[in-house]
Amino acid sequence: MTAVHHPNRKWLLIGLLLGVIFSALDETVVSTALPTIIRDLNGLALLGWVAGIYMLSITIFMPIFGKLADLFGYKRIYLICMTLFMAGSIICGLSNSMAMLLIGRAIQGIGAGGLMPIAMMIIGDTFPLEQRAKVQSLVGPLMILPQLVGPLVGGYLVSHVSWHWIFLINIPVGLIAALLIYKNLNQPLRTKRIIIDWAGALTLTLAILSLLLIPVLIDIKGYTWSSPVILVLLALFVLLTALFIRIETRAAEPIIPLALFRNRSVVMLSLIVFVTMVGLMGGLSAFPFFAQNVMGLTPVASGYLNFGFMAGAIPVSIACGFLITKVPYKYLFVISLSSLSSAILCWLRLM
User: How many whole angstroms separate alpha carbon 206 and alpha carbon 240?
Assistant: First the structure.
């Protein structure tokens, strides 16, 4: 991919971080407001879909937008994703029914699916290798911030304003981020013939959708792992995955180059990120709901409980950004994963 040319890297980085922070914030801010939203819209039967459809959309479209950005240029695809995210936010903010809310959440998730990976791609091309560790030491705490501030912001808006504003507040911030990206990111147009792997994109989308629908249906509809519907979805996932692999081995511009998985470092890093996010995001997203409905706390009080996490996560993230060029990666991974495992065990004992 052609290099990124930037008149002002500082403002470009600010624009990228604003987009990433608010797309990540939307995952957690809704969890605190969810009991109120469900009550107002009489949508208890669709409770799991409010967060589920957002994460489904992100997961499905993240690799697709990442590849499109590589083909058509970061700037164009990033601004399209930001537009989708803001459009979804407007629909959610104006919702007067669960159907309208879920449509908005799906559109938000599609946009957010592009914001996160493309921002990392731009940062990787914008900053030279020796500066990336320092940039990551800044990005790390700011990526943690939405997980902690989200429940608090959501609790405050629900208690003092209206839950509609947890979505509408995205609009001015999104406009500022889009303007900063538009002004400060310049990228030469690609002159090479563009080939889009439509078959791979469609197969990947259907495979991920069939897999991620399983826990959602088990949670909402009460299916078990032995239910015919679940077994059909599992079989469909396996079939589509095999078909996707066959398509990608022959595609001129594959959505996911399978050669990456011959690299042990890529495989291990992918597994580490998966396991970490399952434990971390699972606990943080569910905790506000547990605090309000089981512990009997107010939305604001449940948000305050996350500040203990911030006290440890932010300084350690900054320290790792400076240590990563001086200490072997594996030692940092072992220490971090051991700490996370200990914390999860403590949570389980509290349950």
Answer: 7
Per-residue tokens: 8: 């002002």
- pLDDT reported for residue 91: 92
- Which one has a higher pLDDT value, 159 or 136? 159
Q: Centre a 10 Å sphere on the Cβ of residue 49 and count the other Cβ atoms it contains.
A: 19
Average pLDDT rounded to a whole number, residues 254-259: 80
* Measured distance CA(102)–CA(108) in Å, rounded: 10
Q: Please tell me the predicted confidence (pLDDT) of residue 303.
A: 61
Q: Burial-class residue 261 by CB neighbours within 10 Å (0-12, 13-18, 19+).
A: exposed
Nearest Cα neighbor of 306 from 50, 52, 28, 55 is 28
Residue 194 DSSP class: P
Is the dihedral angle over the CA atoms 327, 328, 333, 339 positive or is it negative?
negative
| Residue 188 CB-density burial (10 A; 0-12 exposed, 13-18 middle, 19+ buried) | exposed
The two tokens of residue 65 are 């937008």
- Structure token digits, residue 252: 């001129």
d(CA 315, CA 34): 30
Whether the predicted pLDDT of 239 surpasses 90: yes
Q: Cβ distance 241 to 205 under 8 Å?
A: no
Entry pTM: 0.71
Tokens at residue 246, please? 């066959």
User: In terms of C-beta density within 10 A (0-12 exposed, 13-18 middle, 19 or more buried), how is residue 27 classed?
Assistant: buried
In this structure, the number of other CB atoms found within 10 A of the CB of residue 86 comes to 24
**pLDDT of 189 higher than 80:** no
Q: Which pLDDT tens digit goes with each residue over 84-103?
A: 999 998 998 888 888 898 89
Phi, psi of 262 (to 5 degrees): -85, -15
Helices 264-293, 129-160: axis angle to 10 degrees equals: 20
Given a contact cutoff of 8 angstroms between Cβ atoms, the answer to whether 197 and 254 are in contact is yes
